[in-house]
Design brief:
Layout: E1 8-10, E2 24-26, H1 30-52, H2 66-83, E3 93-94, E4 101-102, H3 104-110, H4 128-153, H5 158-169, H6 172-176, H7 186-203, H8 207-220, H9 222-241, H10 247-267, H11 269-280, H12 297-302, H13 321-329, H14 338-356, H15 358-364, H16 378-393, H17 399-415, H18 424-446, H19 451-481, H20 495-507, E5 514-519, H21 526-530, E6 537-538, H22 544-551, E7 557-558, E8 563-564, H23 570-575, E9 578-584, E10 591-595, E11 603-606, H24 618-626, E12 631-632, E13 637-640, E14 645-646, E15 650-653, E16 663-668, E17 674-677, E18 683-687, E19 692-696, E20 707-711, E21 717-724, E22 728-731, E23 735-738, H25 740-753, E24 757-760, E25 764-782, E26 787-791, E27 800-802, E28 805-821, H26 826-858
Length: 878
């Protein structure tokens, strides 16, 4: 009995015309059941692995590692706040990060996986669970769709397709790359989804739905959507080359696919038109170069072996022992035409080569080398492996091909045994799973007609795939737990984060003041995690204006400005309206809530031209925004130790030998003032009156914060001892002595002349000023593109910038200002989407009219549609 068998029943709701065949329908769909079974099998195997490793949500070990902790959990918390209407921002603007930054680009990049929207169904302090479900459901849906797509490549049992698809859903890329990036997981959904769409191109049908599939792939995550589009283009070209139909028909298929891609991507245009300007205006990424050297062939081939892990950068491509044996047997499978074998094997070779050659690697990654693993597109190769495995299995491979394939797998294991990636777990997977797969496939070939053999083989193969996939996931978790880089971080699932959230929410006074979640750190996006309006922000879309304006005031950054930290000095806090912040404290609380003291309002008023003056140091820039002198900035004088060389702007320091003497400088300041030290790129130890601080500056990758060295002693002499890790320059304006009484007076002056009332919308600010205010109103908001401002109800215009912050000229005096943010590129993107929608609707309408005319032209009685014969795809050589 065929696995494709279904139960048919005669339709009873429509009378049959004499002589017409009975219309039958399926009571249940074997393909759908098999796809659902594949989804459940892959999700269950993944959950079993996590449970055995005691990993959340099945144990105490958190999944909050790397970018999952630093970006995706905080951004999902922010999405939760927006969904429940408790966020200070909205979908267009984010007040929680970088003192106000655009949000739509972050949303499109990090939160557009459709499963991300389920976060709103759970309590806020349980967002870790729905974020896990985003990954889990993506695995299930991708596995199910691959089961369906494999049936479009070649007819055959959906149950065997389901087992191969499980290997795709839990491929090495998912376990080692995608696990921490929920948005990338949409890529394993997009690949088979687009494969189905291109199959309809071959059949010449369902253009509208296929176009919507392309739009869904790009909208869910345009990065992996683009990779999947390239991959299915290669797969479609492979299939078209195997067709026997005339060249004209094959070109028509490719043209149909091209229009699907064009209109589908056009429908998702806002994602590109918003993200491209945001990326262009963002802080540049750290320099990244591709080595240009191919990894050793054996290292690449070893990644095909299941349950392994190479720590260095190599494509993660294994799909399980079941698929691997079938792929290895494919070149020797004589029931598959030679031309088909050569073309599919050529596709695998070309795709892998394209990952290893820089020009084509750039194409896979949107013409930009990624930070981290350069093989983020490896999931498409895993999908291709599973397709080749199915083409091998569907033609019932003979014993000779299977034995040769199994021998090749064993040979690969033996010759790569000394590689770091070939661990004990690889031997277990191959030596236990390989014989089980081989014996089952041989038995199926020998006793194909035996129901008992088929059932036993199915049971053995199902167990091999399920437990083999679970074991690979278990091994990936075990290896990761031993790497310090993957040490779990705090999330809202931890008591400390929940306590901090509660304490900071009680202190919020936005927009009258800001609550800053640092310098204490939970994640790189603490503002979004804890729903407060702070500076800490980590994203690929940090505006360069934001990063440079805050760094210019003494705020530190890492990752070349793509991660901004919280301010550590009272002047910056006061200028940004910070009234409360978190400080480190001993366990078990680990933090303390600290009152920052008086702060300036969000909108201050200054004389025209006073704030825009450039400053030579962070101290000068802070004073320009204060409109007052609160620092003494003395020159440093050499005192003792190895004598440095005097330069035009400072002192040339030599590298201090291990246990060597520090070089000491002295300076004069008013007794009782606070000595702050700021040199963004210094690398070394600096000891002041009370504190000894380790600075780790590295231009332009890591910028130091402004730090307190201590209180100036009674004699007014500040001594600074420096141990330098390298040859570097110490600028003259590195020391600033802050008079706190002058700071208090300056803040009082800003409050007296600044806004008397402030209202902040999701992406707007309204401020009431003292009547007749003149000069310029400065907002404690970075001057990112997209803002438009006016005063006293006038027309909106582009604001100017004061030290990198929004400035509104008050021409002729003013009593109010209004500023609103408009996402750059959104309007043009929506126009393109509208155009695509018109094309889709017109196409759908035309197709509907043609279907209605067809019965009339063929003479079918009115009110009764003729039952069309099913369309067949063009023949494939066999």
């Amino acid at each position: 009995m065929s696995a494709e068998a279904t139960i048919d029943v005669v339709r009873s709701d429509t009378a049959e015309a004499p002589g017409e065949p009975r219309v039958r329908r399926r009571r249940w769909d074997t393909n759908g059941v098999a796809a659902s079974a594949a989804a459940l099998l892959s999700m269950a195997a993944f959950c079993l692995a996590l449970a055995l490793r005691h990993t959340y949500p099945f144990g105490h070990r958190s999944r909050a590692v790397n970018d999952l902790a630093n970006q995706f959990l905080p951004f999902h918390e922010h999405l939760w706040d927006i969904q429940h209407g408790v966020s200070s921002g909205d979908m267009f603007f984010n007040w929680n990060s970088g003192y106000g930054v655009p949000f739509l680009a972050d949303f499109f990049t990090y939160l557009c996986n459709p499963f991300s929207w389920i976060v709103g169904l759970f309590p806020r302090d349980m967002v870790d669970l729905p974020v896990f479900l985003v990954t889990l459901f993506s695995i299930g849906l991708g596995t199910a769709l691959m089961t369906v797509f494999l049936g479009r490549l070649h007819a055959g049992s959906p149950w065997w397709r389901a087992l191969l698809a499980v290997g795709y859903g839990l491929c090495s890329w998912v376990l080692n790359d995608g696990f921490a990036d929920p948005m990338w997981m949409w890529g394993i959904v997009a690949l088979p989804l687009l494969g189905i769409a291109t199959d309809w191109c071959i059949q010449g049908r369902r253009w509208v739905i296929g176009t919507l599939f392309f739009a869904a792939a790009w909208a869910g995550n345009f990065y992996t959507g683009a990779m999947a589009t390239i991959a299915v283009g290669l797969i479609l070209l492979t299939r078209v080359l195997l067709l026997t139909s005339p060249l004209r028909d094959r070109l028509r298929i490719l043209g149909r696919a091209g229009t699907m891609v064009a209109v589908g991507v056009l429908l998702a245009a806002p994602i590109m038109t918003v993200d491209l300007p945001a990326s262009t205006d963002s802080q540049p990424a750290p320099p990244n170069t591709f080595s240009g050297a191919f990894p050793p062939v054996l290292d690449v081939l070893a990644q095909l072996l299941p349950a392994g892990r190479e720590i260095s950068a190599v494509p993660d491509v294994f799909v399980g022992i079941f698929a691997l044996v079938l792929v290895a047997a494919f070149p020797f499978h004589r029931l598959v035409p030679l031309k088909e074998r050569l073309i599919w094997l050529g596709l695998l070779a070309v795709t892998m080569f394209s990952f290893l050659w820089e020009p084509t690697l750039l194409v896979w990654h949107g013409l930009a080398l990624p930070n981290g693993s350069p093989y983020r597109a490896a999931f498409v190769f895993a999908g291709m492996l599973v397709m080749v495995a199915w083409l091998s299995l569907a033609r019932h491979p003979r014993p000779a091909a299977l034995l040769i394939g199994a021998g090749l797998v064993l040979a690969l294991l033996l010759v790569s045994r000394n590689l770091d990636s070939v661990r004990h777990s690889v031997w277990v997977s191959v030596l236990l799973g390989g014989p089980a797969v081989l014996v089952s496939l041989l038995a199926l070939h020998r006793w194909r007609d035996s129901r008992w053999v088929r059932g036993g083989a199915a049971l053995v193969l199902t167990a091999t795939v399920f437990f083999g996939s679970a074991y690979s996931a278990y091994v990936a978790e075990a290896i990761r737990s031993k790497i310090p880089f993957f040490t779990p971080m705090a999330s809202m699932a931890t008591p400390q984060a929940r306590s901090a959230y509660t304490a900071l929410q009680a202190a919020r006074t936005w927009p009258d003041g800001r609550v800053e979640p640092g310098p204490y750190r939970f994640a790189n996006n603490d503002g979004a995690l804890l729903d407060v309006e702070g500076a800490r922000y980590y994203s690929s879309y940090i505006p360069a204006v934001t990063a440079q304006a805050l760094q210019g005031l003494g705020v530190s950054w890492t990752i070349s400005g793509r991660h901004i930290h919280s301010p550590t000095d009272p002047v910056t806090r006061a200028l940004m309206g910070v009234t409360t912040y978190l400080d480190p404290a001993p366990a078990p609380q680990n933090f303390t809530v600290t009152q920052a003291g008086p702060a300036a309002p969000l909108v201050t008023v200054h004389p025209a031209g006073a704030v825009e003056r450039p400053g030579a140091s962070a101290f000068a820039r802070q004073q320009a925004l204060l409109g007052a002198t609160v620092y003494q900035v003395p020159k440093l004088t050499y005192a003792t130790g190895p004598e440095p060389t005097r330069t035009a702007g400072g002192w040339q320091l030599a590298r201090t030998p291990k246990d060597g003497e520090r070089v000491t400088f002295s300076a004069s300041c008013a007794p009782g003032t606070d000595a702050y030290f700021y040199t963004p790129w210094l690398d070394g130890w600096v000891r002041g009156p009370q504190n000894d601080i380790n600075y780790v500056g590295r231009e332009s990758l890591t910028s130091n914060p402004m730090e307190l060295l201590g209180t100036v002693p009674a004699d007014g002499t500040v001594k600074i001892a420096i141990s330098s890790r390298k040859n570097q320059v110490l600028p003259d304006a590195s020391l600033g002595c802050l008079d706190k009484s002058k700071l208090t007076a300056a803040i009082a002056g800003l409050r007296a002349t600044g806004a008397t009332r402030i209202e902040a919308g999701g992406h707007s600010i309204d401020a009431t000023l003292p009547a007749g205010s003149t000069g310029v109103a400065v907002l404690a908001v970075p001057a990112v593109k997209g803002w438009a401002c006016s005063h006293d109800g006038g027309s909106l215009g582009q604001p100017s910038s004061a030290q990198g912050f929004l400035a509104v000229p008050l021409d002729g005096g003013a009593s109010s200002i209004h500023c609103t943010f408009r996402t750059p590129g959104l309007k043009s993107g929506l126009a393109l989407s509208g155009l695509a929608l018109v094309i889709i609707l017109a196409t759908a309408g035309t197709a509907t009219v043609r279907r209605r005319r067809a019965p009339e032209e063929s003479g079918t009685p009115a009110g009764r549609a003729r039952i069309p014969s099913p369309r067949r795809a063009p023949a494939i050589e066999s």
